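BUG: 3D viewer hangs when loading the predicted structure for this chain

Environment: internal workstation, default settings.
Expected: structure renders.
Actual: progress bar stalls at 90%.

Input used:
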Amino acid sequence: MNDYDTLAQAYRKTAEKPDKKYSILPTVMSLLGKLEGKRVLDLGCGSGFFTLPIARRNPEIVYAIDNSQKQLRLLPKHKRIVPFRLDIFRDPLPRADVINAPFILNYAKTKTHPLHRHLRRGYGGARHYDEKKGTQSHRQ
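Structure tokens produced before the viewer hung:
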């Protein structure tokens, strides 16, 4: 796993890359759908690339979760953002309606890792994106 405490400032600069800013961000935000009044987990939030746009969609709360304290210190301040330093592969996660986890599943050691099962099961009504079919579903 990368040491994001060491890479925090350099990684934050990747938010300006055109592919992230103009392709990945709009795609992920579209997949997340309406967030008003929902509880959202932003797993592997880093310095808040997705966290702030999520918070601007008026969810009840956005749990910004990362294992890097330095990344969490770079999060923008927003009344709906609550940062947590957790190991998403070991620590219990807050209950949520929607989970955003676009850059973290590659760190799971196996496809049977509990986080994969957690996301496939539709934790708390999470949206699930099927990469092979190119479709999304909302699970209760």
